[in-house]
Amino acid sequence: MDTIKTFEDLKCWKVAREVRNQVSVLIREFPSYEKFELASQMRRASRSVTHNIAEGYGRFHFKENAQFCRVSRGSLYELQDQLITALDEGYINEDRFKEMRLKVVECTTILNGYIKYLKSAENNY
Questions:
Q1: H-type helices in 4-61, by residue range?
Q2: Count of domains in the chain?
Q3: Rounded-to-integer distance, Cα 28 and Cα 15, Å
Q4: Which of 75, 80, 77, 85 is CA-nearest to residue 51?
Q5: Other CB atoms within 10 Å distance of the CB of residue 99
Q6: Which secondary structure element, helix H or strand E, spans residue 115, and what is its range?
Q7: pLDDT tens digits, residue range 54-98?
Q8: Which of 7, 32, 76, 110 could connect to 57 by a Cys-Cys bridge, CB 3.0–4.6 Å?
Q9: Can you give the residue range of the structural domain that contains 17?
Q10: Are residues 44 and 20 in contact, defined by beta-carbon separation less than 8 angstroms?
Q11: How far are the Cα atoms of 32, 50, 61, 91, 93 from residue 12, in angstroms, in the given order?
Q12: Residue 72 lies inside a defined structural domain of this protein
């Protein structure tokens, strides 16, 4: 098993970074009038995921770390809804939606595993 030395070593952060980068590319294709609306919301939600994982990691306490990860998970669900909105508005096609949704679900699943680990570690500490 790899040693975790920084938040950048966490699988959940790595996958969240991929999501963030994909969102950054995706929203460039949105109409200009969405620049300060949906595109901005999606940018902030995707950034919130990695930011909160990093901040939680820096707290060095299992319970606090898990709380920040739960905030990240909430941002992933927010992003899922925003992807649905983008699909409904015709900004992305069904294939792109499914691709992005799968990545968000993958990230959520990995993050849930990390939260479970943090809860277990807290109980065994």
A1: 11-27, 38-58
A2: 1
A3: 21
A4: 75
A5: 15
A6: helix 94-123
A7: 999 998 799 999 999 999 999 999 999 999 999 999 999 999 999
A8: 7
A9: 7-123
A10: no
A11: 32, 9, 18, 28, 27
A12: yes
What torsion do the CA atoms of 49, 54, 58, 61 make, to the nearest 10 degrees?
Answer: 40
- Cβ neighbours of residue 67 under 8 Å, at least 6 residues apart? 56
Q: Which two tokens stand for residue 110?
A: 């990995």
Per the document, the length of the chain is 125
| Sole residue written with tokens 């809804």 | 81
Query: What are 56's two structure tokens?
Result: 């939680």
pLDDT tens by residue, 29-38: 999 999 899 9
> What is the Cα Rg of the chain in Å?
15
61 near 125, Cβ under 8 Å? Answer: no
Look up the CATH number of the domain holding residue 119: 1.20.1440.60
